Amino acid sequence: MEHIKKSKKNFKTFKIIFLILIIVSIIIIGIKIINKSASTDVENADSTIIGTFSYEDGTKFKFEKDGKGAMYVGKDKFDYSYKTEGSKLMIDFVDEKVHDATYSYQIENNTLKLVGEDGTAGGEYTLKKE
After folding, report:
1. Residue of 63, 66, 79, 62 lying closest to 39 (CA atoms)
2. What whole-number distance in Å separates Cα of residue 80 and Cα of residue 84?
3. Of 3.40.50.20, 2.40.128.280, 3.90.600.10, 2.60.40.10, which CATH number belongs to 47-129?
4. Residue 91 host element (H or E)
5. Which of 9, 55, 78, 127 has the largest count of CB atoms under 10 Å?
6. Strand, coil or helix: what is 105?
7. Following DSSP, what letter does each residue of 27-87 receive, concatenated?
8. What is the predicted pLDDT for the residue at 40?
């Protein structure tokens, strides 16, 4: 009789351990999925935009691989994060005094053409890659 009690107790312990392993596996898989989706935005960024582009008035836009960048106007630097979706370039400035901006963009022969949309004064801008 005692052998049966031990067997039942061992089986309950096995079930608990098995359940814990399943929960841990689900958590690990969930973390991997979240990390993959978080990195997808950067991976979806247009790789041809990586680099520094200069406008004729001395303004520069720097785009890094990690979706971060900076706009340089004279001696001032304005950090931002950016993403691209199709032909849209969305810039989210860290400093809230600077308006976030959306542009239609096209890159051809190391030239970045921007057409101002949301958050801009409009207009077209041609920048050369350094």
Report:
1. 66
2. 13
3. 2.40.128.280
4. strand 88-93
5. 127
6. strand
7. HHHHHHHHHHHHHHHHHHS-GGG-EEEE-TTS-EEEE-TTSEEEEEETTEEEEEEEEEETT
8. 40
Q: How confident is the model at residue 36 (pLDDT cuts 50, 70, 90)?
A: low
Burial class for 32, CB neighbours closer than 10 Å (0-12, 13-18, 19+): exposed
81 and 67 in contact (C-beta within 8 Å)?
Answer: yes
Report domain extents, the chain: 1-44, 47-129
Please say if the pLDDT value at position 120 is more than 90: no
Q: CB within 8 A of 59, min separation 6: which ones?
A: 71, 72, 73
Q: Which residue has the tokens 């400093």?
A: 95
Indicate the residue type of 64.
Answer: E
